[in-house]
Structures are given as structure tokens and as C-alpha cells.
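Side project, low priority. Logging it here so it doesn't get lost.
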Amino acid sequence: MAPTVGIVSPGAMGSALADALTTRVVATVEGRSERTRGLAAQAERLELLPTLGDVLREADVVLLVVPPGEAEEIGTAIRQAGARFLFVDLNAVSPVTVRRNGADVDGAISGPPPWRPDTTRIYLSGPRAAEVASLPWTHVELVVVGDEVGTASAVKMCTASVYKGTTALLAHALLTARSAGVLEHVLDDLRSSFPELVDGAGTAVARATTKSARYVPEMREIAETQASAGLPRELFEGVAVAYEALSKCELARTAPEDVPARLDVEKALDQLGS
């Protein structure tokens, strides 16, 4: 009999994961935002149930995909349910946090929500990782990286430090350049070495700003991960402060999907200053 997969929660990533599975997928929008409700409604294969308790009772496998700041609270509730399901933590959190959540399998998502083929990779670790990899996925690449829970999260913390750290650095550099009246020269210089980064800078910075509130705890999870490797945690504590500042601007209240695909850098920086 095909397994039932529970998604907690069906936001942008969770709803896309639901449509990337060719089996019964259940979720709830109880207590979630209007945006999450709208995204869940777009998922063709997702069956909505009244409560989280209903999802946990119905599911054979539970995928936890929530903002990093909610991961421990919801992870604790799932663990305390004491049900028979396979618990998979797919959150952007440190290995320490994922172990504290008590998941059977640790997962790390790299790339955007898998609405299109060949865009999303999921790293998995833990003694039952192969069971998750063998679910009926479509257009998602599954990579098992080890038998220990926490290994996949280590991958995520390292890659996210580069992806999201670079965007925060870019935002600060461009805001400083504009303040000094040298934005045109800075963009021209950076374009010679990083043409794709500069050409998409406006959209990248704007989209990161719309997610900045959830990036703050993620940057602190990265800081914790790096500290466990004997590195100074201050670097990503500082990046957390940078995203916290961005989260206070008007643009941070915009949904990521509402940011234009080609947003002019000047227009993006104007919105960061509001």
C-alpha cells in the first residue's frame, strides 16, 4: 500500500513538495497565514485536513518544512505526538537543532520550490534516509549523505552561508555605494567578475528582503554550526543583524512571488530604504 505523506506546513516549499509526490499527501492550514492558505490551495495533489493532529494520525511519513524560527516548537509537538510515522526534519537549522527535534531523518533542501523539474535537490541523512529517498518523488533529486542525523543539515548550513551570506553582503555593498554616490562604478567593477550576480542583483536582494524575517534565525543556526567547528560565530551573528534590519523595511512585507523577475537595482534599493 502506498504511504500517506504529511506536510507541515504547506507554504511555498511544502506545497511544491506535495505536488512532487505521486502518493496521497495531507496537510493542514490550521493557524497558518492567508498566504500559506493560498499557496496550499494551488497544490493539485494536496488534501487538506482540519488539524495538525489529523495530519499526524493519517500520515506514514511526516515532512516538517517550516520557517527556522518555528522549527523547534513544532518539532517538539510532532515528537510528543508519539505516533507511528517516520519523522523527517527538512528545516534550515543546525545539526544540533535537528537532533534536538528528535527526527528519524534529517533533510536539507537546496534550490527553489520544485514547481519545475531539475531545480531542487534534497540531501538526506539518518538510518532511515533510504526510505525517504524511495518515496515516489518526481523532478526532485534525492542525495543520501550519511547514516547520522545532522549530516544533511550540515550541508544546508554550509551552502546557505554562501548563498544567503552573499546576498546580505551584496545588499550592504550596494546600499553603501549608493550612499557614497558610486553605485554605477561599483556595479561596473563587480560585473567584470560576477556578471550573473550583478545582472540579477535587484531581484535577488528584493526577494531576500521579503524573506528576511525568517532568515534571521537561520543565520543564527549557521552561527551555531560554525561555532561547533571552532569558528567565530560573530560573522553570521552579524549577518543575522543585517537581515533583521532589512526585515523592518516596507518591502519585507511583500510576498516573494510578487517581486518582479527582472527588478532594476535602483528600484530595489529605493524599496530597501523605505
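Brief comment: The beta strands are 5-8, 25-27, 46-48, 61-64, 86-89, 105-110, 121-125, 141-146.
Revisit when time allows.
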